[in-house]
Structure formats: structure tokens, C-alpha cells
UniProtKB/TrEMBL annotation:
Pfam families: BPD_transp_2
CDD domains (UniProt xref): TM_PBP1_LivM_like
Membrane topology: Multi-pass membrane protein
GO CC list: plasma membrane
Superkingdom per UniProt: Bacteria
Location of this chain's protein in the cell: Cell membrane
Primary location: membrane
Biological source species: Pararhodobacter marinus
Keywords, sorted A to Z: Cell membrane, Membrane, Transmembrane, Transmembrane helix
Parts of the chain that traverse the membrane: 20-39, 45-63, 95-115, 122-143, 174-192, 224-246, 252-285, 297-319
Protein name per its UniProtKB record: Branched-chain amino acid ABC transporter permease
């Protein structure tokens, strides 16, 4: 059993709680760096897809898991990030500049949309954002000069410092691009949580009235959370569209937003690890079902993937609301306290304070 005896406030917000955790993440990073030499091209592409989903999932996690605002429209901002990146590249900007600028533009537009949207709460906010996701399909068709309409776009050639990023000729290049982006977004997310703004996000999530009483500008905090969330989703959308090779108005439909929400719930709301664990389920489960049906000698079953996803989501909501990472935390705590762990030590707690009823 290990204890963290803290003697200063700086230790409470440090990036890694101790050297043991730091060494584990270093070992994981080394494993990810040598992964292209350990697996074949197919599975390397699937891992790349997991990392891309995780980047987009971190965006929704920041809004829903940290600030408590539900969004069903992040597919629209993923599309905005993708088309913005391609248009900036057509203007002559190098990929890295176009990629980062697309995320910034998506975040600014998301923050502007959030000003009226975040006056809504709960299911009304979810319906508003769902309308954005449905409306994005029509907007992509209408804005044909910038989006290609129903014909869509073919992904342009990507070069970084003279190295061509090609999914088919050199899949490891795409893998390292997705890995670098996911590490960048995860570190930005983690440092954001250590800042006063990150504490304000948690305060607004737990109780808006209590946060306002402590001097938190609730409207400003929600707007910043929405803007940053959209920026991360825009980066994930740009990677997703470019990785697919071709995309149009049907690529970023509202089902992508539903999958994003399912991903963070299954992985664990409020945890950075939850976005990656949920991305593994979202990316690998369709492949697993396809391999399973092939081995059973049957053709593809219509609606099988959707049905399995739905059953998994219902199971997590009923039996493990904290998701996969929450379950791991419980197992780790039980092992650390064994044999003194008690059965009722993980009893569910109320998420919101009673003062929330006064809103």
C-alpha cells in the first residue's frame, strides 16, 4: 500500500503523483514508439484510428465530463475542423499550420455558438446541439465551393518537414502523426485541469450556484469550455477525414456525435484515460464483430453493431456509471486495501449538490 504525503500545494497539482506513475507512462510511451515494429499494417491502422477517436473524444470529455454540459453536435465541429484544414492547405499553408489553425478557427466558432446555446440546460442543450449536427449535413451541401458538396474532397498530400504522410505506402507515418497529436491534446487537457480554469470547470459541473457564490463567472467558464472542446474535436475531425482519404457530407453525420458520447460514457466520464479506453471499444468492436460473424460462417447481420453498442451502453449506465476506468480504479483500490476493503466503500454518491435544485 502506497501513501502520498503532501507537504505543499504544488504537490497537489503536479503532473504525475509520484515517480512510479511517471515511470509507467514512460514505459507506455516507449511501447507506443516501437509498436510499428511489433504489429502488422492492418492492426497499426486500427491503433491509428483509436488515437484519432481519442483526440475527438477528449474534446467532448472536456465539455461533458469536466463541465457537465451534454453535447450531441460535436460531429458538426469535427466536420468544420476537417474542411477548414483542407481549405487552408489549398490556400498554400503547410499542413501543421493549417491543422493548428483549423483547430483554432473551430474553437472560436464553437465559442460564438456557445454564447446563446449555453443559456439552455440539460436535455434542451442536447436537443440544440443535435440540431447543429443535423443542420451541418445540409450546410456542407450548400457550401459546395468550400466543401465539395455531395462529391466531397479527396485528402490532399500531407508533408511534414519533407516527409510524406501516406496511409498506404507508409502507415507508420500516419500512426506517429496520430500519436503525436493525441499526446499533445492529452497534455494540454491535463495541464488545463491543473489550472484555475480547470477548477472552475469542475465547480460549474458540480453546482452552478455554488460556483457562482465562490466568484466563478459561470457564463464565461461554459463558453471557454465549449470553445476548447470544439477546438479539440476539430483537430480530431481533421485527422479523421484526412485518414479516411475521402470525405463528404455523410462522413460526419450525427451518428458520429452519438458514438462520441457513447465512447466517453463507456470509457469513464471525467477521466482522460476514459477517452482512450472508450476509443478502443468504439474502434475495435466493429472489427471484432466482423471477425466473429465470419468465423461463424454467417453473413453480416443488419443492425448487429448498433444493437451491441446499445446493450453495452445500457449495461454501463446501470451497473458501472464510472465506465471502464472507474472500474479499474475500484479494482486497484480494493487490491491496495486488501484485506481491509469493505463491500460498501464504493457506494454511489450524488453527483450534484442540493443547492442545484434552486436553479
Amino acid at each position: 500500500m502506497r501513501f502520498h504525503f503532501k507537504t505543499s500545494y504544488d504537490q497537489d497539482i503536479r503532473l504525475f503523483p509520484d515517480w512510479w506513475n511517471f515511470s509507467l507512462y514512460v514505459a507506455l510511451l516507449l511501447l507506443m514508439l516501437v509498436l510499428p515494429w511489433l504489429i502488422d499494417g492492418f492492426y497499426l491502422g486500427e491503433v491509428t484510428n483509436v488515437l484519432i477517436w481519442a483526440v475527438a473524444g477528449l474534446g467532448l470529455m472536456l465539455l461533458t465530463g469536466q463541465t457537465g454540459q451534454v453535447s450531441l453536435g460535436h460531429s458538426a465541429f469535427m466536420a468544420l475542423g476537417c474542411y477548414s484544414c483542407v481549405n487552408f492547405m489549398e490556400l498554400g499553408l503547410p499542413f501543421l499550420a493549417a491543422f493548428l489553425l483549423a483547430g483554432i478557427v473551430t474553437g472560436i466558432i464553437g465559442a460564438i455558438i456557445a454564447i446563446p446555446a449555453l443559456k439552455l440546460h440539460g436535455v434542451y442543450l442536447a436537443i440544440f446541439t443535435l440540431a447543429l449536427a443535423i443542420l451541418a449535413d445540409d450546410l456542407i451541401v450548400i457550401l459546395e465551393p468550400w466543401t465539395g458538396g455531395v462529391n466531397g474532397y479527396f485528402a490532399p498530400v500531407i508533408e511534414i518537414f519533407g516527409i510524406e504522410i501516406n496511409r498506404w505506402a507508409a502507415p507508420e507515418t500516419w500512426y506517429y502523426l496520430a500519436l503525436g497529436t493525441s499526446i499533445f491534446v492529452a497534455l494540454l487537457y491535463r495541464n488545463l485541469l491543473r489550472s484555475p480554469l480547470g477548477r472552475a470547470f469542475a465547480a460549474v459541473r458540480d453546482s452552478e450556484i455554488s460556483a457562482q457564490a465562490m466568484g466563478v463567472d459561470v457564463a464565461r467558464t461554459k463558453t471557454l469550455a465549449f470553445g476548447l472542446s470544439c477546438a479539440f474535436a476539430g483537430l480530431g475531425g481533421a485527422l479523421m477525414g484526412l485518414f479516411a482519404g475521402a470525405f463528404n457530407n455523410e462522413t460526419f453525420n450525427f451518428l458520429i456525435a452519438i458514438q462520441l458520447l457513447m465512447m466517453i460514457i463507456i470509457g469513464g466520464l471525467g477521466f482522460i484515460h476514459g477517452a482512450f479506453l472508450g476509443a478502443i471499444v468504439i474502434a475495435f468492436l466493429p472489427q471484432f464483430l466482423s471477425i466473429l460473424t465470419d468465423n461463424l460462417g454467417s453473413a453480416s447481420i443488419p443492425g448487429l453493431e448498433t444493437g451491441v453498442f446499445g446493450m453495452i451502453l445500457i449495461a454501463f449506465i446501470l451497473f458501472e456509471p464510472m465506465g471502464l476506468y472507474g472500474r479499474w480504479l475500484k479494482i486497484r483500490t480494493w487490491l491496495e486495501l486488501f484485506p481491509f476493503a469493505r463491500r460498501d466503500m464504493f457506494r454511489r454518491q450524488k453527483t450534484y449538490l442540493k443547492t442545484e435544485r434552486l436553479r
